[in-house]
Write a structure and sequence with these properties.
Strand order of the largest sheet: 1-2-11-10-7-8
Strand content: 15-25%
Number of strands: 12
Radius of gyration: 27 Å
Number of helices: 7
Order of helices and strands: HHEEEEHHEEEEEEHHHEE
Structural class: alpha+beta
Length: 330
């Protein structure tokens, strides 16, 4: 349409055939208006396409990371994520909370890399967890299911990316692919069991925030096979009113202009101190606001938070609480 306007003016308007200064000014104004209209039209079309792409990406991410309910078996919970890809809602972080006959089971993980390339791995690990969490009576069996699912996914990717199949070279070699995984199980009395493959330990929010344990985690899934004997950590109890904050390393790795890391533990303590009855949703909003203020920009890695608060009725202790994180074989 804009091209037709310009051609019609040039061929049909007598003023366009004249060489005078006034005629040139008018012609320039006409072509400037036509060019401006064309640019605005293209801009609107690109913005419309961008909105559609974002809607599709958001729908894909919501299928993978389903919105969590506000409560599961007496636990109030909320989750948030911040993608390192500008304008994207997809990333390499994963989490899920499920009520099972074995207790409330939680997974949080981090796929190497971020953006669209990580979606396939996230789907493989989360899909396996959602089945294994109900099927397997013990956490080590759940973790082994995740390991097998990741192995199948990487083998399928290897075949798809092989030059003989017309595939292109991957950004990250498959031999260097890995996923950090944290598995938790919270029993009816708040008893916490954990298995950790290379993931940051969660923080227990009861007074000053502190790591759930300082035990060395297992290596991430992918580069090395799991050991034959997996030992579950018994991490005490999540008492009524206490919160457990799970996160990916993008939270602690965010830096400001001077290179200082984001002090996650101190910020969690400060956010909780500002409001002793802070809800999981409010805590996540407060921490993300502090993170963006600290970094002054989007983080260089995906950053996810998951908060679980024990809102169950207090159960009187019949004996002294056991020490946190006693290791038991399984």
């Amino acid at each position: 349409m804009w091209g037709a306007v310009a051609i019609t003016y040039k061929l049909a308007c007598p003023l366009a055939q004249q060489d005078g200064l006034g005629a040139r000014i008018v012609s320039s104004a006409v072509f400037f208006a036509v060019g401006t209209g064309l640019i605005l039209h293209v801009r609107r079309a690109l913005l419309r396409e961008l909105r559609q792409v974002r809607e599709v990406a958001g729908a894909a991410q919501n299928v993978l990371l389903r919105p969590l309910p506000p409560r599961v078996e007496g636990l109030a919970l909320a989750a948030g994520r911040l993608s390192a890809s500008r304008g994207a809602s997809v990333g390499g972080d994963l989490y899920e909370v499920m009520a099972t006959e074995h207790g409330v089971r939680v997974v949080m993980g981090d796929v190497r890399g971020h953006g669209l390339a990580a979606i396939g791995t996230v789907a493989a690990v989360l899909g396996s967890f959602r089945e294994a969490a109900h099927d397997e009576p013990e956490l080590p069996l759940v973790l082994r299911r995740l390991e097998r699912a990741l192995g199948r996914h990487l083998r399928e990717r290897s075949r798809a990316e092989h030059p003989a199949g017309g595939g292109t070279a991957p950004e990250v070699p498959l031999a260097e692919e890995f996923v950090t995984v944290l598995l938790l199980e919270i029993g009816p009395r708040g008893d916490i069991s954990a298995l950790n493959c290379g993931h940051p330990w969660p923080h227990l929010l009861s007074g000053p925030a502190r790591p759930l344990t300082d035990r060395e985690p297992l290596p991430p899934l992918g580069p090395f096979p799991l050991p034959a004997d997996l030992s579950v950590l018994r991490c005490g109890r999540l008492l009524p009113g206490e919160s457990l904050v799970l996160h990916t390393d993008g939270m602690e790795d965010a830096r400001d202009a001077a290179g200082a890391f984001f002090p996650l533990r101190a910020e969690l303590t400060e956010a909780a101190r500002a409001d002793h009855t802070v809800s999981p949703q409010a805590l996540i909003r407060a921490v993300y606001a502090r993170l963006v203020r600290h970094a002054g920009r989007l983080p260089s890695d995906d950053a996810a938070l998951l908060v679980l608060r024990n809102d169950r009725a207090r159960v009187p202790c019949q004996q002294a609480e056991p020490g946190r994180c006693a290791r038991t074989g399984s």
